[in-house]
Amino acid sequence: MSVNRVLFDPPGPRGRRRIRIIATIVVVMAMGLVALALQRFAASGQLAPGRWQPFTHWPYLRFLWEGLRGTLGATAVAALFSFPLGAGVAVLRLSRNPTLRRLAAGYVELFRSLPLLLLIFAFLLALPPLGLNLPIFWKLVVPIVMVNVAVLAEVFRAGIRALDRGQFEAAAAIGLTHWQSMRIVVLPQAIRMMAPALVAQLVSLLKDSTLGYVVSYPELMKQANSLTVYTHLLVQTFLIVACIYVAINLLLSQLAHWLERRSQRRPRAARPVPARADVQVDAQAPTPQLVH
Q: Which of 106, 123, 240, 288 could be a cystine partner for 139, CB 3.0 to 4.6 Å?
């Protein structure tokens, strides 16, 4: 079962035709906007070679590289905590214990509703006077983790609910408890089925890291903003940064598509074992009989 069938019903022929028409219109409009923007940039001299020449020097590129490294570092650490915690909250929400189930549901509903920027401001301004003053890196990463755990918990819960009920029954038939069946049988299959959606969630984590400017964390957008103050090349700097983000997101999208195609492949059927010439199978005999 693909992730598309888990999250929504596949469209029919009329729906696919409507989607193609809308997608074509959106692409044409986007290309028109890009062409209009390039025309305006050229008319104002923003595309002149002299305004792009500073970005061929290593100090400028190194400054942006440090920001990209900060962005990737914050995204990787946030993902390292968000994915396992999201799976844990999803399992708790499906627990047979009503107290654990309510606590997990309350966490998901609360942090899925709170804006990420509000949480970052809380860690920056509200918590330090109360004695909780985290380093700059964690003032960005912890709010990202708190919000994305709630989102990922729903993704994992959808994957678990999409599994056939027979998986739970088979696990119980061989003597596994509820938690053992979740850990050994159900959760690994759900993770495999939801892998494309989980990889796509990395795009959201990557974009969330752009809020690092609030806490003065040196991520890519913060470094680009500092660079524009020094060079006054606002359009050129942010166009380069936009291209970097588009390139990273395209790579993540390709990874998600590859995982989805791989999850849809059916395992190869076992090849039949050729019968030996010196063995004769008797239909009524319990075992093959050799011909002497």
A: 123
